[in-house]
Amino acid sequence: MNAKQPLVRRIVIAFTLMTLIVSGAFSLGIVAIVHFIEEHLVSQEMNEELDSILQKDLAKGLAPRLDLKTRLFASHMPGYEIPQSFIGLDEGFNELVNDKGAFYVFIRDTPQQRYLLVQEQAEFEARENALFAVVFAGFVLSVLAAWLLGWLMARTIIAPLTRLARQVRHRDQLLTLAPNLAPDYPDDEVGHLAAAFDETLGQLRNSLERERLFTSDVSHELRTPLMVIASSAELLEAAPLEERQNRQLNRIKRATNEINELVETFLLLARANNTAQPLAGGASLAQVADEQARRWGSRFTEKQLHFELVTETPAAGVFHAGLLATVMSNLLRNALHYTEHGGVRLVLEADGFRVEDSGQGVPSDQQDSIFQPFVRGAQARGEGLGLGLSLVKRICAHQHWQVRMYSLPAGGSCFAVKLG
Asked: Are residues 35 and 123 both part of a single domain?
Protein backbone atom coordinates (compact mmCIF):
# COMPACT_ATOMS: atom_id res chain seq x y z
CA MET A 1 0.00 0.00 0.00
CA ASN A 2 1.34 3.41 -0.96
CA ALA A 3 2.38 5.15 2.27
CA LYS A 4 1.89 8.57 0.62
CA GLN A 5 -1.87 8.10 0.37
CA PRO A 6 -4.07 9.96 2.89
CA LEU A 7 -4.44 8.21 6.22
CA VAL A 8 -8.24 8.01 5.84
CA ARG A 9 -7.87 6.22 2.53
CA ARG A 10 -5.31 3.80 3.96
CA ILE A 11 -7.65 2.92 6.84
CA VAL A 12 -10.58 2.40 4.46
CA ILE A 13 -8.48 0.24 2.15
CA ALA A 14 -7.16 -1.86 5.04
CA PHE A 15 -10.65 -2.30 6.50
CA THR A 16 -12.12 -3.21 3.10
CA LEU A 17 -9.31 -5.65 2.30
CA MET A 18 -9.76 -7.37 5.65
CA THR A 19 -13.50 -7.74 5.02
CA LEU A 20 -12.82 -8.86 1.45
CA ILE A 21 -10.54 -11.64 2.66
CA VAL A 22 -12.76 -12.78 5.55
CA SER A 23 -16.01 -12.54 3.59
CA GLY A 24 -14.45 -14.17 0.53
CA ALA A 25 -13.09 -17.04 2.57
CA PHE A 26 -16.47 -17.48 4.28
CA SER A 27 -18.33 -17.44 0.92
CA LEU A 28 -15.93 -19.93 -0.64
CA GLY A 29 -16.29 -22.09 2.45
CA ILE A 30 -20.08 -22.12 2.06
CA VAL A 31 -19.77 -23.14 -1.59
CA ALA A 32 -17.26 -25.88 -0.77
CA ILE A 33 -19.39 -27.24 2.09
CA VAL A 34 -22.52 -27.30 -0.10
CA HIS A 35 -20.68 -29.23 -2.81
CA PHE A 36 -19.16 -31.63 -0.28
CA ILE A 37 -22.45 -32.33 1.48
CA GLU A 38 -24.25 -32.62 -1.84
CA GLU A 39 -21.79 -35.16 -3.19
CA HIS A 40 -21.55 -37.15 0.05
CA LEU A 41 -25.27 -37.41 0.80
CA VAL A 42 -26.49 -37.92 -2.77
CA SER A 43 -23.73 -40.45 -3.48
CA GLN A 44 -24.63 -42.42 -0.36
CA GLU A 45 -28.36 -42.32 -1.16
CA MET A 46 -27.89 -43.37 -4.79
CA ASN A 47 -25.47 -46.14 -3.81
CA GLU A 48 -28.05 -47.59 -1.39
CA GLU A 49 -30.81 -47.28 -3.99
CA LEU A 50 -28.70 -49.08 -6.62
CA ASP A 51 -27.96 -51.87 -4.13
CA SER A 52 -31.69 -52.24 -3.52
CA ILE A 53 -32.43 -52.41 -7.24
CA LEU A 54 -29.74 -55.00 -7.92
CA GLN A 55 -30.53 -57.22 -4.94
CA LYS A 56 -34.31 -56.93 -4.64
CA ASP A 57 -35.45 -56.34 -8.20
CA LEU A 58 -32.98 -57.48 -10.85
CA ALA A 59 -31.78 -60.50 -8.85
CA LYS A 60 -35.41 -61.77 -8.78
CA GLY A 61 -36.04 -60.98 -12.44
CA LEU A 62 -38.27 -58.03 -11.64
CA ALA A 63 -38.26 -54.66 -13.34
CA PRO A 64 -36.52 -51.96 -11.30
CA ARG A 65 -38.85 -49.91 -9.14
CA LEU A 66 -37.93 -46.26 -9.69
CA ASP A 67 -39.57 -42.88 -9.06
CA LEU A 68 -40.39 -40.49 -11.87
CA LYS A 69 -37.07 -38.61 -11.63
CA THR A 70 -34.79 -41.66 -11.52
CA ARG A 71 -33.73 -43.98 -14.36
CA LEU A 72 -31.50 -47.07 -14.59
CA PHE A 73 -29.15 -47.87 -17.45
CA ALA A 74 -26.94 -50.92 -18.00
CA SER A 75 -24.37 -51.74 -20.64
CA HIS A 76 -25.72 -55.24 -21.53
CA MET A 77 -29.42 -55.09 -20.61
CA PRO A 78 -31.90 -54.80 -23.47
CA GLY A 79 -34.09 -51.76 -23.11
CA TYR A 80 -31.68 -50.10 -20.64
CA GLU A 81 -28.93 -49.04 -23.04
CA ILE A 82 -26.64 -46.28 -21.83
CA PRO A 83 -27.28 -42.94 -23.62
CA GLN A 84 -24.44 -41.44 -25.55
CA SER A 85 -24.28 -38.39 -23.22
CA PHE A 86 -23.48 -40.64 -20.22
CA ILE A 87 -20.72 -42.67 -21.87
CA GLY A 88 -17.20 -41.97 -20.66
CA LEU A 89 -18.03 -40.92 -17.10
CA ASP A 90 -15.93 -42.21 -14.22
CA GLU A 91 -17.13 -44.81 -11.75
CA GLY A 92 -18.80 -43.41 -8.67
CA PHE A 93 -20.69 -40.15 -8.26
CA ASN A 94 -20.88 -37.66 -11.12
CA GLU A 95 -22.78 -34.43 -11.59
CA LEU A 96 -23.65 -33.68 -15.18
CA VAL A 97 -25.16 -30.51 -16.61
CA ASN A 98 -25.87 -30.26 -20.34
CA ASP A 99 -28.43 -28.90 -22.73
CA LYS A 100 -30.86 -31.64 -21.71
CA GLY A 101 -30.83 -30.76 -18.04
CA ALA A 102 -28.94 -31.36 -14.79
CA PHE A 103 -28.38 -34.91 -13.52
CA TYR A 104 -26.79 -36.89 -10.72
CA VAL A 105 -25.14 -39.98 -12.19
CA PHE A 106 -23.94 -42.84 -9.99
CA ILE A 107 -21.90 -45.53 -11.81
CA ARG A 108 -20.98 -49.00 -10.60
CA ASP A 109 -18.86 -51.40 -12.62
CA THR A 110 -19.10 -55.20 -12.26
CA PRO A 111 -17.32 -57.88 -14.29
CA GLN A 112 -20.44 -58.32 -16.41
CA GLN A 113 -22.15 -54.92 -16.44
CA ARG A 114 -21.83 -51.20 -15.97
CA TYR A 115 -24.83 -49.81 -14.15
CA LEU A 116 -25.83 -46.15 -14.21
CA LEU A 117 -28.40 -44.75 -11.85
CA VAL A 118 -29.43 -41.31 -13.15
CA GLN A 119 -31.48 -38.83 -11.15
CA GLU A 120 -32.77 -35.52 -12.39
CA GLN A 121 -31.73 -32.62 -10.15
CA ALA A 122 -32.89 -29.51 -12.00
CA GLU A 123 -34.93 -28.34 -9.00
CA PHE A 124 -32.04 -28.82 -6.60
CA GLU A 125 -29.67 -27.13 -9.09
CA ALA A 126 -32.00 -24.11 -9.20
CA ARG A 127 -32.05 -23.92 -5.41
CA GLU A 128 -28.29 -24.33 -5.32
CA ASN A 129 -27.83 -21.49 -7.81
CA ALA A 130 -30.17 -19.32 -5.75
CA LEU A 131 -28.11 -20.09 -2.66
CA PHE A 132 -24.90 -19.20 -4.46
CA ALA A 133 -26.49 -15.96 -5.73
CA VAL A 134 -27.46 -15.06 -2.17
CA VAL A 135 -23.93 -15.84 -0.97
CA PHE A 136 -22.42 -13.71 -3.75
CA ALA A 137 -24.81 -10.85 -3.02
CA GLY A 138 -23.95 -11.09 0.67
CA PHE A 139 -20.26 -11.00 -0.22
CA VAL A 140 -20.68 -7.86 -2.35
CA LEU A 141 -22.88 -6.16 0.25
CA SER A 142 -20.42 -6.98 3.04
CA VAL A 143 -17.58 -5.42 1.06
CA LEU A 144 -19.64 -2.29 0.35
CA ALA A 145 -20.75 -2.11 3.98
CA ALA A 146 -17.13 -2.55 5.08
CA TRP A 147 -16.07 0.32 2.82
CA LEU A 148 -18.78 2.60 4.19
CA LEU A 149 -18.16 1.57 7.80
CA GLY A 150 -14.41 1.90 7.30
CA TRP A 151 -14.86 5.40 5.90
CA LEU A 152 -17.06 6.45 8.82
CA MET A 153 -14.68 4.92 11.36
CA ALA A 154 -11.66 6.46 9.66
CA ARG A 155 -13.25 9.91 9.71
CA THR A 156 -14.07 9.45 13.38
CA ILE A 157 -10.57 8.22 14.20
CA ILE A 158 -8.86 10.90 12.14
CA ALA A 159 -11.00 13.75 13.46
CA PRO A 160 -8.78 14.42 16.54
CA LEU A 161 -5.65 14.27 14.36
CA THR A 162 -7.21 16.67 11.86
CA ARG A 163 -8.10 19.04 14.66
CA LEU A 164 -4.60 18.79 16.13
CA ALA A 165 -3.03 19.41 12.71
CA ARG A 166 -5.23 22.49 12.26
CA GLN A 167 -4.13 23.83 15.65
CA VAL A 168 -0.46 23.14 15.00
CA ARG A 169 -0.71 24.73 11.55
CA HIS A 170 -1.40 28.09 13.24
CA ARG A 171 2.09 28.04 14.71
CA ASP A 172 2.35 31.83 14.96
CA GLN A 173 -0.45 31.86 17.52
CA LEU A 174 0.94 28.75 19.20
CA LEU A 175 4.27 30.45 19.71
CA THR A 176 2.72 33.41 21.49
CA LEU A 177 -0.73 33.31 23.04
CA ALA A 178 -2.32 29.89 22.51
CA PRO A 179 -2.62 27.54 25.51
CA ASN A 180 -1.31 23.99 25.60
CA LEU A 181 -2.92 21.45 23.30
CA ALA A 182 -2.81 18.31 25.48
CA PRO A 183 -5.67 19.26 27.90
CA ASP A 184 -8.11 19.20 24.97
CA TYR A 185 -7.43 15.53 24.19
CA PRO A 186 -7.91 12.25 26.10
CA ASP A 187 -4.99 10.24 27.47
CA ASP A 188 -4.45 8.21 24.31
CA GLU A 189 -2.07 8.23 21.37
CA VAL A 190 -3.44 11.55 20.06
CA GLY A 191 -3.17 13.06 23.55
CA HIS A 192 0.44 11.87 23.77
CA LEU A 193 1.15 13.44 20.38
CA ALA A 194 -0.41 16.72 21.55
CA ALA A 195 1.73 16.58 24.70
CA ALA A 196 4.83 16.06 22.55
CA PHE A 197 3.85 19.12 20.49
CA ASP A 198 3.37 21.11 23.71
CA GLU A 199 6.80 20.12 24.95
CA THR A 200 8.48 20.95 21.64
CA LEU A 201 6.62 24.24 21.28
CA GLY A 202 7.50 25.11 24.87
CA GLN A 203 11.17 24.58 24.14
CA LEU A 204 10.84 26.64 20.97
CA ARG A 205 9.08 29.45 22.84
CA ASN A 206 11.84 29.49 25.44
CA SER A 207 14.54 29.52 22.78
CA LEU A 208 12.90 32.37 20.88
CA GLU A 209 12.35 34.32 24.08
CA ARG A 210 15.98 33.83 25.11
CA GLU A 211 17.10 34.95 21.66
CA ARG A 212 14.86 38.00 21.78
CA LEU A 213 16.00 38.98 25.26
CA PHE A 214 19.63 38.36 24.38
CA THR A 215 19.39 40.50 21.26
CA SER A 216 17.56 43.26 23.10
CA ASP A 217 19.90 43.21 26.11
CA VAL A 218 23.08 43.10 24.07
CA SER A 219 21.86 45.83 21.74
CA HIS A 220 20.83 47.96 24.70
CA GLU A 221 24.06 47.42 26.63
CA LEU A 222 26.18 48.23 23.58
CA ARG A 223 24.80 51.73 23.45
CA THR A 224 26.81 52.94 26.44
CA PRO A 225 30.30 51.89 25.20
CA LEU A 226 29.39 53.10 21.71
CA MET A 227 28.52 56.52 23.10
CA VAL A 228 31.86 56.59 24.92
CA ILE A 229 33.73 55.66 21.73
CA ALA A 230 31.84 58.23 19.67
CA SER A 231 32.41 61.05 22.19
CA SER A 232 36.09 60.14 22.50
CA ALA A 233 36.42 60.20 18.71
CA GLU A 234 34.87 63.69 18.64
CA LEU A 235 37.37 64.90 21.24
CA LEU A 236 40.26 63.40 19.29
CA GLU A 237 38.98 65.00 16.10
CA ALA A 238 39.30 68.43 17.73
CA ALA A 239 42.97 67.79 18.58
CA PRO A 240 45.83 68.29 16.08
CA LEU A 241 46.61 64.86 14.59
CA GLU A 242 48.95 63.54 11.96
CA GLU A 243 47.61 62.15 8.69
CA ARG A 244 48.10 58.55 9.78
CA GLN A 245 46.33 59.25 13.07
CA ASN A 246 43.47 60.96 11.20
CA ARG A 247 43.03 57.84 9.05
CA GLN A 248 42.83 55.65 12.13
CA LEU A 249 40.38 58.08 13.73
CA ASN A 250 38.19 57.96 10.62
CA ARG A 251 38.22 54.18 10.78
CA ILE A 252 37.12 54.33 14.42
CA LYS A 253 34.27 56.72 13.58
CA ARG A 254 33.23 54.61 10.60
CA ALA A 255 33.24 51.40 12.65
CA THR A 256 31.27 53.13 15.41
CA ASN A 257 28.62 54.22 12.94
CA GLU A 258 28.40 50.73 11.51
CA ILE A 259 27.97 49.20 14.96
CA ASN A 260 25.31 51.78 15.79
CA GLU A 261 23.42 50.82 12.64
CA LEU A 262 23.70 47.11 13.48
CA VAL A 263 22.47 47.74 17.01
CA GLU A 264 19.45 49.59 15.62
CA THR A 265 18.80 46.76 13.17
CA PHE A 266 19.03 44.09 15.89
CA LEU A 267 16.69 46.06 18.11
CA LEU A 268 14.18 46.46 15.30
CA LEU A 269 14.25 42.73 14.55
CA ALA A 270 13.99 41.83 18.24
CA ARG A 271 10.99 44.12 18.76
CA ALA A 272 9.35 42.81 15.59
CA ASN A 273 9.90 39.18 16.59
CA ASN A 274 6.27 38.62 17.53
CA THR A 275 4.78 39.97 14.31
CA ALA A 276 4.96 38.78 10.75
CA GLN A 277 4.16 42.24 9.37
CA PRO A 278 7.04 43.99 7.60
CA LEU A 279 8.23 47.28 9.04
CA ALA A 280 7.20 50.35 7.08
CA GLY A 281 9.45 53.28 6.30
CA GLY A 282 9.78 56.51 4.37
CA ALA A 283 13.05 56.23 2.44
CA SER A 284 13.28 55.60 -1.28
CA LEU A 285 15.69 53.12 -2.82
CA ALA A 286 17.63 55.92 -4.51
CA GLN A 287 18.13 57.81 -1.24
CA VAL A 288 19.50 54.75 0.56
CA ALA A 289 21.70 53.86 -2.43
CA ASP A 290 23.19 57.37 -2.64
CA GLU A 291 24.01 57.28 1.07
CA GLN A 292 25.65 53.86 0.79
CA ALA A 293 27.56 54.91 -2.33
CA ARG A 294 29.06 57.88 -0.46
CA ARG A 295 29.85 55.69 2.52
CA TRP A 296 31.51 52.81 0.64
CA GLY A 297 32.91 54.64 -2.37
CA SER A 298 36.05 55.77 -0.56
CA ARG A 299 36.72 52.27 0.77
CA PHE A 300 36.56 50.81 -2.74
CA THR A 301 38.90 53.58 -3.88
CA GLU A 302 41.35 52.75 -1.07
CA LYS A 303 41.45 49.18 -2.38
CA GLN A 304 41.93 50.47 -5.94
CA LEU A 305 38.61 49.06 -7.09
CA HIS A 306 36.23 50.79 -9.46
CA PHE A 307 32.83 51.45 -7.89
CA GLU A 308 29.79 52.51 -9.87
CA LEU A 309 26.20 53.36 -8.93
CA VAL A 310 23.90 52.64 -11.89
CA THR A 311 20.19 53.46 -12.10
CA GLU A 312 18.60 51.32 -14.81
CA THR A 313 15.00 52.14 -13.90
CA PRO A 314 13.87 54.51 -11.16
CA ALA A 315 12.27 52.48 -8.38
CA ALA A 316 8.97 53.50 -6.88
CA GLY A 317 7.89 53.04 -3.29
CA VAL A 318 9.39 53.76 0.11
CA PHE A 319 11.10 51.34 2.47
CA HIS A 320 12.47 51.11 6.00
CA ALA A 321 15.72 53.04 5.78
CA GLY A 322 17.58 51.15 8.50
CA LEU A 323 16.78 47.64 7.27
CA LEU A 324 17.32 48.48 3.60
CA ALA A 325 20.62 50.20 4.43
CA THR A 326 21.76 47.17 6.45
CA VAL A 327 20.99 44.79 3.56
CA MET A 328 22.73 46.99 0.99
CA SER A 329 25.68 47.70 3.29
CA ASN A 330 26.32 44.01 4.03
CA LEU A 331 26.22 43.12 0.35
CA LEU A 332 28.66 45.94 -0.50
CA ARG A 333 30.94 44.88 2.37
CA ASN A 334 30.85 41.30 1.10
CA ALA A 335 31.79 42.49 -2.40
CA LEU A 336 34.65 44.58 -0.96
CA HIS A 337 36.11 41.62 0.94
CA TYR A 338 35.97 39.18 -1.97
CA THR A 339 37.04 41.41 -4.85
CA GLU A 340 40.73 42.05 -5.49
CA HIS A 341 40.68 43.36 -9.06
CA GLY A 342 38.16 45.07 -11.27
CA GLY A 343 35.20 46.74 -9.67
CA VAL A 344 31.80 46.61 -8.03
CA ARG A 345 28.49 47.88 -9.39
CA LEU A 346 25.39 48.82 -7.40
CA VAL A 347 22.56 48.64 -9.91
CA LEU A 348 19.10 50.03 -9.10
CA GLU A 349 16.10 48.40 -10.78
CA ALA A 350 12.40 49.08 -10.83
CA ASP A 351 11.67 46.46 -8.18
CA GLY A 352 14.95 46.23 -6.29
CA PHE A 353 18.69 46.33 -6.71
CA ARG A 354 21.67 44.10 -7.33
CA VAL A 355 25.34 44.17 -6.32
CA GLU A 356 27.75 42.85 -8.95
CA ASP A 357 31.44 42.23 -8.36
CA SER A 358 34.41 40.88 -10.34
CA GLY A 359 35.72 38.69 -7.54
CA GLN A 360 36.44 34.97 -7.53
CA GLY A 361 32.75 34.06 -7.24
CA VAL A 362 31.17 31.28 -5.24
CA PRO A 363 31.29 27.64 -6.38
CA SER A 364 27.90 26.28 -7.42
CA ASP A 365 27.94 23.63 -4.66
CA GLN A 366 28.25 26.40 -2.01
CA GLN A 367 25.65 28.84 -3.34
CA ASP A 368 22.77 27.17 -1.50
CA SER A 369 24.49 27.47 1.89
CA ILE A 370 26.09 30.90 1.51
CA PHE A 371 23.21 32.56 3.42
CA GLN A 372 23.50 30.20 6.40
CA PRO A 373 24.96 31.57 9.68
CA PHE A 374 28.72 31.20 10.15
CA VAL A 375 29.20 30.02 6.55
CA ARG A 376 32.01 31.74 4.69
CA GLY A 377 33.46 31.18 1.27
CA ALA A 378 36.43 28.88 0.70
CA GLN A 379 38.63 31.97 0.24
CA ALA A 380 37.24 33.97 3.16
CA ARG A 381 38.49 37.53 3.52
CA GLY A 382 38.29 40.06 6.32
CA GLU A 383 37.55 39.39 9.98
CA GLY A 384 33.88 38.54 9.62
CA LEU A 385 32.22 35.51 11.19
CA GLY A 386 29.95 34.67 8.28
CA LEU A 387 26.90 36.41 9.74
CA GLY A 388 26.48 39.27 7.24
CA LEU A 389 24.67 37.33 4.54
CA SER A 390 22.69 35.47 7.19
CA LEU A 391 21.50 38.84 8.52
CA VAL A 392 20.60 39.90 4.97
CA LYS A 393 18.52 36.75 4.54
CA ARG A 394 16.78 37.27 7.86
CA ILE A 395 15.88 40.89 7.14
CA CYS A 396 14.62 40.03 3.65
CA ALA A 397 12.48 37.20 5.05
CA HIS A 398 10.95 39.52 7.65
CA GLN A 399 10.28 42.30 5.14
CA HIS A 400 8.93 39.86 2.52
CA TRP A 401 11.80 40.69 0.20
CA GLN A 402 13.66 38.16 -1.92
CA VAL A 403 17.42 37.75 -2.16
CA ARG A 404 19.32 35.38 -4.39
CA MET A 405 22.88 34.90 -5.53
CA TYR A 406 24.20 33.71 -8.87
CA SER A 407 27.49 33.73 -10.79
CA LEU A 408 28.10 36.18 -13.61
CA PRO A 409 29.10 34.84 -17.06
CA ALA A 410 32.25 37.01 -17.11
CA GLY A 411 33.24 35.96 -13.59
CA GLY A 412 32.30 37.23 -10.19
CA SER A 413 29.05 37.15 -8.29
CA CYS A 414 25.74 38.98 -8.29
CA PHE A 415 23.42 39.39 -5.31
CA ALA A 416 19.94 40.48 -6.41
CA VAL A 417 17.31 41.78 -3.98
CA LYS A 418 13.67 42.13 -4.99
CA LEU A 419 11.78 44.61 -2.80
CA GLY A 420 8.28 43.86 -4.07
From this structure: yes
